[in-house]
What does this fold into?
Amino acid sequence: MTGAVPSQKFDVVVVGGGPAGLSCSYTLAKKGLRVAVVERGRTPGTKNLFGGRVYSSPLEKVYGNFRKEAPIERWVKHEKISVVADDGALSLDYDSNGSTSFTAYLPKLVAWMASKAEAEGAVIVSDVRVDDVTMDGHRAVGISAGGDRLNADVVVLAEGVNRLLCERMKVVPPLSANQVALGVRQVVRLGSDKINERFGLAGDEGLAWFFLGRPSDYLPGGAFLYTNSSTVSVGLVLYLKQGIQMPDNEVYDILEKFRSSPPLDQLLAGGSLVEYGSHLIPEAGLKMMPDRLYGDGYVIVGDAAGLVLNLGYTVRGVDFAVHSGFLAAEVISDAYSSKNLGAASLATYEQKLNQSFVVKEMRRHSAIQKMMQKRHIFEAYPRILVDAARRLYEFDEVSPKLLEAGRLSMKGRRSTIGVLSDLLALSRGP
Amino acid sequence: MSQTGQVQTQPKASSRTSIEDALNADVWDVDESPHIEVDTDKCATCETRPCLSFCPAHAFALLGERMLYSYEGCLECGTCRVLCPKEAITWKYPLSGRGVQYRF
It folds into this structure.
């Protein structure tokens, strides 16, 4: 560990300087606790990657002056979802003047969160990969990295989706293909004028655009596009369990096919690729959550706790991470005051998280989360919907009735009973 | 509110970016020692080899029947670790902040 780190014990050591770890550290430091954040990246943010959009309310709750200070690219004023088949696409646009979510570069947002934590007195130790959580019996008492140790009363596991430490502690089983999706993303520089012109945006208005069907090669998942100030983030999400059944396609090839086909080839023409990256996304909802999010001397937050919700038309992860870190900090701070840092005391974090919008949202939408993993949904429905639209919009003399178009388009793709059972599954509560 | 549009399906080959060019767009600080180790003897007995199509960095390749891999262009997503049916991959994060440096 670097010489700048004081050798004495910290109150809390946070493993991972991402959205969850840093909101936790900031909140703890603000409450006067001595916090160290250990981050494997050269600086916080350099190992973070996401699609491109953040819901702001949970961040505003943690950071008072968030809207003025944070590195926000564009507020999302336009939402679009396109269902794409081989011979056409059907789109739904939503325009509003609201500002509940924004596009951002996660490395920049995380760097800003790190500066906020540091300003409150948290110590950020970058460049250090944590190898182990040090245990005293069943109690976490610190971390070790490259033979060095850092002791603390509480360890916050904010290590991200590849929760190697949690696995080694045996608090979660090894990550499996049915728990995660692979996200790949390109960032294309286009300039703000061209972005506004081509995507029909004014000023700093942002667009969030989802694609289902052909863009993911009809595999469970989808594609996305977000506009930043002068760049566009464009990518693909593929559920790994279903993805591995795909015959010969390569992930990068599917992404390139999507990006270089209409309408994106025209929209992004002349742009230059400035970054390509990939990241796993927790997608199993409540099933990926550890049985317990706490133990003697530790709590688990953010992606490591599986806190992501993908609804097909929107994805939430950063805001869940931030809120889980915030709740963990509140509980740790209370536990500190009452001088009881055992599992029973830290259990309050799990209770608070369960009562919060984070787990409530994941529960409420568990039916759609399950549907998002079903292959037939992505194979049949884009083709049915686009075919129905074709029947309704393209005709010589006689046009079909609405339901007739639907019925004809379902033929050979999905039975009426199949469609009804899908609707039933979708409407089923937790 | 809603609209339809015709989408042409023929991609322009000329506008494709190769995986090499895509990876070259990134900022790298490559470690001298690999953070991924693959027991390639196990790969020889693997029938499905999902790493070949699913590694987004094309870090795995077959030379005849021999599995080759490179850690230098690894995007650190962890997909290979999750997918490998033979548990042939020892996967850690690079030390000292090395590897890919995300900026956007």
